């Protein structure tokens, strides 16, 4: 019986062949290292700029959403709302909202800011009215120096022009608050000086009626489905007619004319209050004010309220005479 190790194959492949075996040269130093073979894999090459774009002639499928990419025009592949995968545009994620004025959270914050500023303005105005109305030395001094009224009028006009016509002044803090404070002080002085010429009971009654009217009109503006923002041109014409009527009322010293003028003024500025409130609300209305224009929105509401107060005070004052 032959030994199993006597065949042509060695017992240990890792060892060299036995010397003297015919036909098989001895191995030189064991098996040689692998020649060639697969190169070492260093991982996938890094991606340059995300996934590659579509091949030439690729036509993206029609988009299903109502976004700017569904208009049928070709858009860059990397800017597609579906990402870089070439699919249809995904619907908007309800968890991710854009900073648009239609967003309910931004609108609520804007409205809160406007009403906070308006509350400060009205508080300053009420303080001036109470001071001029119940402090007799101040009341006599203001009534004996009418030049102060015209100085305040000039300050109101200058501050209002700067806030209305200069967007950089109106939108940048603290410059916008400085001009708003100057405007509020000058307007409060004028309103208090005018109110000091009436009886204190008439002023208090006019203030109460104004508060009730403004509260009711604000609730109406928030709840109604009528869009008053489209009435800007009509209201401008109405104010222009009211201005001409006011000049006539100054020339014609008639109590009936004065009552009609005051009634028309209260009516027009009541509609203006609804108009400006809906401009501030935005939403489903045709026109709206940008969230950056909180100073302008507060001035609009403030001017509407004080005009309603002055016209109601004129009605009550003429009725008591």
From TrEMBL:
Pfam families: Bax1-I
Coiled coil regions, renumbered to chain: none
Primary subcellular site in the record, as a coarse category: membrane
Region named Disordered: 1-65
Compartment(s) of residence: Membrane
Membrane-topology annotation of the record: Multi-pass membrane protein
Membrane spanning stretches: 114-134, 146-165, 177-196, 202-222, 234-252, 258-275, 295-316
Biased composition annotated in UniProt, kind: Low complexity: 15-30
Bias-annotated ranges (Pro residues): 53-63
An example Gene Ontology CC term for this record: membrane
Family stated for the protein in its record: Belongs to the BI1 family.
Name this protein carries in UniProt: Uncharacterized protein
Source organism of this protein record: Phaedon cochleariae
């Amino acid at each position: 019986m032959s030994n199993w190790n006597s065949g042509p194959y060695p017992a240990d492949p890792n060892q060299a062949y036995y010397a003297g075996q015919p036909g098989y040269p001895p191995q030189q130093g064991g098996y040689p290292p692998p020649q060639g073979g697969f190169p070492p894999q260093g991982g996938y090459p890094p991606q340059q700029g995300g996934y590659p774009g579509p091949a030439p002639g690729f036509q993206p499928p029609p988009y299903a959403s109502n976004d700017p990419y569904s208009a049928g025009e070709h858009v860059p592949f990397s800017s597609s709302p579906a990402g870089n995968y070439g699919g249809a545009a995904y619907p908007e994620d309800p968890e991710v909202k854009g900073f648009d004025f239609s967003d309910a959270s931004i609108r609520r914050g804007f409205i809160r800011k406007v009403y906070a500023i308006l509350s400060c303005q009205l508080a300053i105005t009420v303080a001036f009215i109470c001071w001029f109305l119940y402090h007799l030395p101040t009341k006599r001094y203001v009534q004996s120096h009418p030049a102060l009224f015209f100085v305040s009028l000039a300050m109101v006009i200058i501050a209002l022009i700067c806030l209305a016509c200069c967007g950089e002044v109106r939108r940048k803090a603290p410059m916008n608050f400085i001009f708003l404070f100057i405007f509020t002080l000058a307007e409060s002085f004028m309103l208090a000086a005018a109110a000091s010429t009436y009886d204190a009971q008439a002023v208090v009654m006019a203030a109460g009626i104004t508060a009730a009217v403004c509260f009711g009109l604000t609730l109406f503006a928030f709840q109604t489905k009528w869009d008053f923002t489209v009435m800007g041109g009509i209201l401008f014409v109405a104010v222009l007619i009211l201005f001409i009527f006011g000049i006539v009322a100054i020339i014609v010293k008639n109590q009936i004319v004065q009552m009609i003028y005051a009634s028309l003024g209260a009516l027009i500025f009541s509609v203006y209050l609804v108009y400006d409130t809906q401009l501030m609300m935005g939403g489903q209305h045709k026109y709206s004010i940008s969230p950056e224009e909180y100073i302008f929105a507060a001035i609009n509401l403030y001017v509407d309220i004080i005009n309603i107060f002055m016209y109601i005070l004129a009605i009550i004052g003429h009725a008591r005479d």
